[in-house]
Amino acid sequence: KMAADTSVEILQKVLEDEILQTTKVVEEHLDAEIQKLDQMDEDELERLKQRRLEALKKAQQQKQEWLSKGHGEYREIPSERDFFQEVKESKNVVCHFYRDTTFRCQIMDKHLTVLAKKHVETKFLKLNAEKSPFLCERLRIKVIPTLALVKDGKTQDYIVGFTDLGNTDDFTTETLEWRLGCADIINYSGNLMDPPFQSQKKFGTSFTKLDKKTIRGKKYDSDSDDD
């Protein structure tokens, strides 16, 4: 019993020492920063302030430029020709290939509307797959919904159906945001190693059958059960 108590005391002491050591390091770092600021003369502080203002101004100008190119809202584009124009003028583009009769496309729409407002650095578009047979052929889009992730004019990645989103209709906007972050198509501030759906076990995993659909003689897989 005494040996056990002694072990606990030693462990407690080690932990206390570690906490004190960490606190000391943090305090020393803060002291150094404060000292650095104290030693700055008026001119240096003014220059620091100017640099900060310039950075803010630049960020504001960048945001305005993005907004002028149609970022900041989730928009439908009417044709394939528009797709090429849109991806040419923006570095990061997410395009949702959808179909009116596919219920899962409406789920995707809901999340993309939220993300378009949050991630102004990326352009969010939707295009009717039935009106863009050439693009669907070229990009090998066979499952609806599919998101094409386009960087610098080149399609780098695809989100096909809901497979990458926890395999459930109930995936959260955060899950889709995480997946777009993995593709580096948005500025993602969370931890990429920690997918949000890992903590959503309550949804379970629902696998859905794929049923074949034909559009204008072409075969599409519909990632939907409502047809």
UniProtKB/TrEMBL annotation:
SUPFAM superfamilies: Thioredoxin-like (SSF52833). Pfam families: Thioredoxin. One of its GO terms (cellular component) is centrosome. The keyword Phosphoprotein applies. The keyword Secreted does not apply. Gene3D superfamilies: Glutaredoxin. Residues 53-181 form the Thioredoxin domain. Forms ternary complexes with the chaperonin TCP1 complex, spanning the cylindrical chaperonin cavity and contacting at least 2 subunits. This is Thioredoxin domain-containing protein 9. It comes from Buceros rhinoceros silvestris. The lineage of its organism: Eukaryota, Metazoa, Chordata, Craniata, Vertebrata.
